[in-house]
User: Fold this.
Amino acid sequence: MTTIAVLGNGRVGGNLAAALTRAGHKVAVADRAPGAAADAAQSARIVINATPGAGSLDRLTALREELRDKILVDVSNATTDGPDGLPTDLIYPGSSLAEQLQQALPETSVVKTLNTMLFPVMTSPATLTQTPTVFLSGEDPQAKQTVRELLTDLGWQKEWITDLGGIRTARATEAAILFVPHVIRSSGFTPFAVSIAR
Ligand SMILES: NC(=O)c1ccc[n+]([C@@H]2O[C@H](COP(=O)([O-])OP(=O)(O)OC[C@H]3O[C@@H](n4cnc5c(N)ncnc54)[C@H](OP(=O)(O)O)[C@@H]3O)[C@@H](O)[C@H]2O)c1
Assistant:
């Protein structure tokens, strides 16, 4: 049982919090109420960022003390969105939100994962008809091992998890968001994950 704070109580945050609670973890969810994120992060071992990527760097940098020596699992995508609410462009081209977070929070182990799929897949990967991939990016091998265990709790089989390497590799998975609006426009909101087929 791990104490986990989920920042953001929307589609992603609510879904992850429910699944992690079902898996036996102690989960606190923070909405945007003043102080909620700090309170939740303070008492957690792992903090999951499920808030909009555009403001994440400012929001999480403000929690530097609460995040010290913790694992920050970043599942967000930092994009500008079009009038239909779908992503159009990256906010950190040539870099990534995860790299910016790791640089701003040197005492925190940032692990990027789960950002390359629609939210229902995060907690029900086995429901897809083809084998999905989930990626890991981060500098701290131990933190990535802990996140692997969380992914297993969410239903991810070991061979579906691909560790891409250091936090710089997150720029590849964050760029995969550029597929999303086009896939949704062509096939609707049917759940999918950007995956490696061999
Ligand atoms: N949806 C997906 O399938 C999917 C897949 C992969 C990654 N992601 C990423 O996951 C993140 C969350 O996506 P989502 O679909 O769950 O979005 P969402 O349903 O809009 O939920 C966002 C959550 O963040 C909260 N929030 C918004 N602004 C905030 C602020 N300034 N301070 C604190 N909390 C704030 C919202 O609170 P309010 O309800 O009060 O606005 C809400 O609880 C995004 O970065 C997104 O790119 C989404």
About this structure: The beta strands are 3-7, 26-30, 46-49, 71-74, 79-81, 87-90, 109-113, 134-138, 161-165.
